[in-house]
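Page 42, continued from yesterday. The earlier attempt failed because a stray header line got pasted into the input along with the sequence. Redoing it now with the clean sequence only.
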Amino acid sequence: MNFWSEFLLIVVVHFMAVASPGPDFAIVLRYAVRYGKKAALSASLGIGIGILLHVTYSLVGIGLLIKTTPWLYLAFSVIAAMYLAFLGVQALRSQAPNVKQAVENEQVEPELSSRKALLTGFITNGLNPKATLFFLSLFAVVIAVDTPFHYKLVYGIYMAVATAAWFSLLSFLLTRAKVRGFLLLKGYWFDRAMGLLLLALALHLLYGSMESIGAIWG
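This time it went through. Structure tokens are written below.
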């Protein structure tokens, strides 16, 4: 398989993965609703940087260690579930603003710093076991073993940039004036919905981890 055919295959597979709802989407939507464009864009950048983490361990072989060491992957999954549950509880605590607060929120800086939003995006993606499995599969199945290292590096950089760009686009769409005005008044419902989604993802991860533990000790 030459570079372009392999690259186009990766573009399609990656787009299908990044466009599917998950923790990354939930965080960007929540930040767009609650804190505005700046925080959502920072989180999107953090998610893109998180992709580089997956690419790095896939390239240097750490991904193989995670894949072949059940207890390590289980520990990784449990930590991810706890973190998602923490974010979910925070989202569920969102309160409905009054009209005056909604108007004032259009004129003040978001209460969440760009640094914290970026870090949250990075951790959310970096601790996402689904992303781990995706990149393990990608580098083991889709990308040929004899593909040159510098090609793989280009693939990884593309996926990081494309991921950040995708979520940045969502950030812009979700914070347009009319959408933003609606979300400022009704956005706490989206916030709570995202909290439920994050908790559901956390429970799903924990359930899968418990099944794996049962299989190991059974």
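Notes: Residues 99-109 have pLDDT under 50 and may be disordered.
Reminder to self: strip header lines before submitting.
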